[in-house]
Design a protein that fits this description.
Helix content is 36%, strand content 22%. It has 332 residues and is α+β, with helices and mostly antiparallel strands.
């Protein structure tokens, strides 16, 4: 895992100057005959990943990217792809989402997740939902089966059950390590921000995915158990449109991770997209993270895709697990 700001995926080319407006570019894309090459990028959270978790985090991201690419290669949509890739990450106990989620101050699991379809800007999300295995799929159900964008707490949990999603027990999802972390943090409770930025055990490995399908559609998803020992009812950036996730076929797709209370104050995902025009994707991610740190002090990471398929990966934490799959190739 490396800081991709230093490993530019645009081959080190200088950012293009702004020469053409977004809507004109979208119109030109409609007349272009070459179908876009499907691509998926996933992340497994930006934090001080310890050496002992590095291999599992990279392997988990690679498996999720491969699963996502398979969906795209079968002709699936970008939305199908980000849901499938995120489910793989949620099922992997190496990550703080679904199985592997962290516990809140009461020793309970409360999950946040979102999906967004860049084709029509539809989005669905759940916040502080009870223990379900794949909150990203419940988020998609909110999008497709309700007139709403976000369901929270008991209402979200009841909605999931009404759709046939089994409700688990918190202990079915958490690992022995998560329980040990909870016990350690219970010994010295303090503010979420202080914990996240200073205590390695309090970090969490949120997951997310962005994808471009063969029809030129973009989608994004983010899913998390949040921050260890968070206050009950605390909702981070992850399920909030424009903060933890955004997708718009005309602009790009972004999934974020990091200190939620900072990310939501600067609308990090939308901020990355606002910086994409006339900039390489990695540069937009890096600049948005620098601006967030300068304004509100938080750290994090973002993965992004431009409508052209250009990939951006950047993080301001010590490490972030990520992988990208395109054609037969997986990079991490
Ligand atoms: N952003 C997530 C939250 O604040 C945490 C993370 O990305 O690891 O809930």
């Amino acid at each position: 895992m490396r800081k991709l700001a230093e490993d530019r995926q645009d081959g080190g080319r200088r950012p293009m100057r702004r020469t053409i407006g977004t809507s004109m570019r979208a119109a030109l894309r409609r007349f272009s005959t070459a179908p876009p090459r499907p691509v998926v990028v996933v992340h497994g959270g930006a934090w001080a990943i310890p050496e002992s978790l590095t291999a599992a985090s990279v392997a988990g991201c690679e498996a999720a990217a491969r699963a996502g690419l398979e969906v795209l290669e079968r002709g699936g949509s970008a939305l199908d792809c980000v849901e499938a890739a995120t489910r793989v990450l949620e099922d992997d106990k190496a990550f703080d989402a679904g199985h592997g989620a962290v516990l809140n101050e009461l020793g309970e699991v409360e999950l946040d997740a979102i999906v967004m379809d860049g084709a029509d800007l539809r989005s669905g999300a759940v916040a502080a939902i009870g223990p379900v295995a794949n909150p990203v799929s419940v988020a998609r159900m909110v999008m497709e089966r309700t007139p709403h964008c976000l369901l929270a707490g008991v209402g979200a949990t009841r909605f999931a059950q009404s759709q046939g999603v089994p409700l688990l027990r918190s202990l079915d999802l958490v690992t022995a390590e998560a329980q040990a972390q909870w016990r350690e943090l219970a010994a010295f409770p303090s503010a979420v921000k202080t914990l996240f930025n200073t205590h390695p055990l309090a970090a969490s490995d949120t997951v997310g995915a962005v994808a471009l399908d063969a029809r030129g559609n973009l989608a994004a998803a983010t899913s998390t158990g949040g921050i260890t020992f968070k206050r009950a009812g605390r909702v981070g950036d992850s399920p909030l449109i424009g903060s933890g996730c955004y997708a718009d076929n005309e602009l790009g797709a972004v999934s974020c991770t990091g200190h939620g209370e900072s990310i939501m104050r600067v609308l990090l995902a939308r901020g990355v997209l606002a910086l994409m025009d006339g900039r390489a994707a990695p540069d937009a991610c890096a600049l948005a993270l620098r601006r967030m740190h300068a304004r509100v002090g938080g750290c994090g990471g973002t993965i992004s895709l431009k409508p052209s398929g250009e990939v951006g990966v950047c993080f301001s934490t010590p490490r972030m697990a990520w992988a990208c799959a395109r054609g037969g190739e997986v990079r991490s």
